[in-house]
């Protein structure tokens, strides 16, 4: 395969309802789509999951565009003849660029996608996975109205979601979780703090006991996004398994976290670790270290959802994914048909030779706010 051009496109999609986390509120989703065209006319596409503000990691749509244009697209191997080995090694050839994992993943995953289209080998097969049904959970934002929250949870369970995840922050944690636990004593329930609790010292024994009493399947990233030591300390005082999200940027991070007992579970998002190659390494390391694994979401469009689903074809994923049907967040998705439940609460890994042929280019055209094509 030889890639001849890359198109970067910034697309703005209205969200069905605003999303509230400990970081703030979002009403639209801005996303960079990376499209590669090969000499033989195959297309590969992927989504860069950097958001408008640097609140989840330090990257933003603007920084990702800059790093893609100035540093990643000029990578020499990108314009050379590539086989599967070269695609697999592409991430390593960009390792001189520090950080910027989401920008890297946008390009790297588009490359895998193009290779799948060109070789006509399904993406899940290329990364070593198998067709399987994937259990799906829902991630709910914070809600001041606890009765409304209870209704939203019951509606989600009626719709088929297999696990409830609630965003929490100091003062908005025990009470809303207790409402859900009392309404549904047996539902797998977890909390995601997105680093909202800054220091271990701020967590009282009473708070830890209250969390443990809720019988959560895990608490995700309660402490600093870059602080594994405090997480290890907290895990040693807490029965509830800690899941790390923001802190895990590589397979080496999984090894470190496991070595010091900072978590028992990892939330793997390919965009946060630089793409498919490193995501597979994270998966393999988690399996080796006996760390639980599931695939979280970044409010992806259908393009990112289909890629995350391909990743979930690997056998080490053992908790429900956050990647549900497209219509959860968007009135209109940019893939057609949209991602939908195969049966309530389950998506199926699809056998796709890249996702470009599923893309609704008209919808993308209508939502594009910036577009530039680069010859390679
Ligand atoms: Mg999270």
Give a nutshell description of this structure.
With about 375 residues, the chain is α/β, with parallel strands linked by helices. Helices cover about 35% and strands about 20% of the residues. It is globular.
Beta-strand content bin: 15-25%
Major sheet strand order: 5-6-7-8-9-10-11
Number of strands: 13
* Helix/strand/pairing category: alpha/beta
> What is the helix/strand order?
EEEHHHHEEHEHEHEHEHEHHEHEHE
Morphology call: globular
Low-confidence stretches: none
**Mean of residue pLDDT values:** 95
The description of the largest β-sheet is: 7 strands, parallel
Q: What is the CA-atom radius of gyration, in angstroms?
A: 20 Å
**Distance linking N and C termini:** 13 Å
Helix content: 25-40%
Distinct bound molecules = magnesium ion
Helix count, DSSP H or I runs of 4 or more residues? 13
